[in-house]
Amino acid sequence: MTGDVVSGRAIIADGEGRFGIETIEVDPPAAGEVRVAITAAGVCHTDHASLHWPGPLVMGHEGAGYVESIGGGVEGLQISQPVLLNWAIPCGHCFQCARGAAPLCERTHELDVPRLGTSRAHAGATRWNGRAIDRAFHLGTFARYTVVRAEAVTPLPAELTPDAACILGCAVMTGVGSAVNVADVQPSDTVAVLGCGGVGLNVIQGARIAGARAVIAIDRVPARLQHAHALGATHTLIAHDDDTDHARLVAAVQALTDGRGVDHAFEATGAPALAFLPLKLARHGGNALQVSGAHGAASLPLTDLFWNKRYLAPLYGGCVPSRDFPRLFTWLAEGRLELAGLISHRYPMEALDQAFDDMLQGRSSKGVLRIA
Fold it and tell me: Residue 65 has what pLDDT?
């Protein structure tokens, strides 16, 4: 290891729905690791769900900051360099990586699916009250410092600050990647996106970048639909609370697609009750994708899978960091991908409760915590 132990603030969930701001200690990086000083972290539905994962747990999985120290054998990084963190950390050698399924890397996900909490950086690298503590998604970005494997770090272009770029690490990658990598949207395709928050807006962007001929945005908040239209939705539909069986919504989507339904329907609400609704919006032989990471129980009539529909719950937009982040950077530089306008609210760490409430009530499209 190089350097000294550092202390900093972190938001810690207790596993029973509560959290607090505490002081943690973080070791210097071991060989193959990097210690990052985080300055900004995105807030999403998965972070809210993590309040009930086994605790205590350092929260947060979407963030960016600056390289604070570097372990032995790590190349291509410099102290104080701005970097983006990601939790798709392929080893390149396991069964899944060898078969081309890097997002499912067995080294990254070993033993801790579905909560992705146990840190794979050296044991005990992060401590609270003298005891080792786990970090969400091997990162724990709601903290001033984190130690991660070098593969979790991507240098940022000079024109991108961590404050703006932090949401690339999950919301943008998950949404854009689900459209481009997983659904493989083509120029002649039609797309419906249910939920126009952080992930849904980026599914819309991904579908637009892929050249989809029709992109239907669906939400219950008119302001979100206006934002969706600005980012590339060709049609917008209000989801009405009294449409309890979604019959009116399904009919409206079919009316826009010659009575068939869309080629690709995405759920991005985070609500378990809506997880299977894309099956009703997709045409026969179409794709239904649950991209929100919704947690909880849900059920469906098996006939919703008829005929030849495919239901997918893609992980992290099929992210391969070495391929996908440079591509996102290029699209940003070309003006094809919007970033700054996606962040609607910024909060201090002390206001995480407000950030969650704004997100759950539809008042924010994407919130970011300032980490200090």
Answer: 98
Cα-to-chain-centroid distance, residue 357 = 18
pLDDT band of residue 289 (cuts 50, 70, 90) is very high
Confidence band for 226, pLDDT divided at 50, 70 and 90: very high
Edge-first strand order for the sheet with 214-219 is: 235-238, 214-219, 190-194, 262-267, 282-290, 310-312
| Span 133-147, average pLDDT | 95
> Binning pLDDT at 50, 70 and 90, where does residue 165 land?
very high
Rounded to 10°, the helix 198-210/222-230 angle is: 30
Strands of 234-321 (E only): list them.
235-238, 262-267, 282-290, 310-312
| Strand 282-290, strand 214-219: pairing | unpaired
Split at pLDDT 50, 70, 90, the class of 323 is very high
How many C-beta atoms lie closer than 10 Å to residue 238's C-beta?
A: 14
CB within 8 A of 130, min separation 6: which ones?
Answer: none
Q: What is the pLDDT of residue 209?
A: 98
Question: What type of residue sits at position 344?
Answer: S
| 170 close to 62: Cβ distance less than 8 angstroms | yes
The helix or strand, by DSSP H or E, that contains position 11, with its residue range, turns out to be strand 6-13
Cα separation, 86 vs 41, whole angstroms: 12
Q: Is residue 41 within 8 Å of residue 141, measured between CB atoms?
A: yes
Are 292 and 178 in contact by the 8 Å Cβ rule? The answer is no
pLDDT at 80 > cutoff 80? yes
**What is the gyration radius of the CA atoms in the chain, in angstroms?**
20
Q: How many angstroms separate the CA atoms of 186 and 172, rounded?
A: 19
Specify the DSSP class assigned to residue 292: S
- The per-residue DSSP string of 179-208 comes to IIIIS---TT-EEEEE--SHHHHHHHHHHH
- What does the alpha-carbon distance between residue 243 and residue 280 come to, in Å, rounded to a whole number? 14
Question: Tell me, what DSSP letter sits at residue 53?
Answer: S
The structure tokens listed for 318 are 């099929």
Between CA 17 and CA 356 the distance in angstroms is: 12
Full set of structural domains in the chain with CATH: 6-169+339-370 (3.90.180.10), 175-314 (3.40.50.720)
Q: SS3 of 133, please?
A: coil
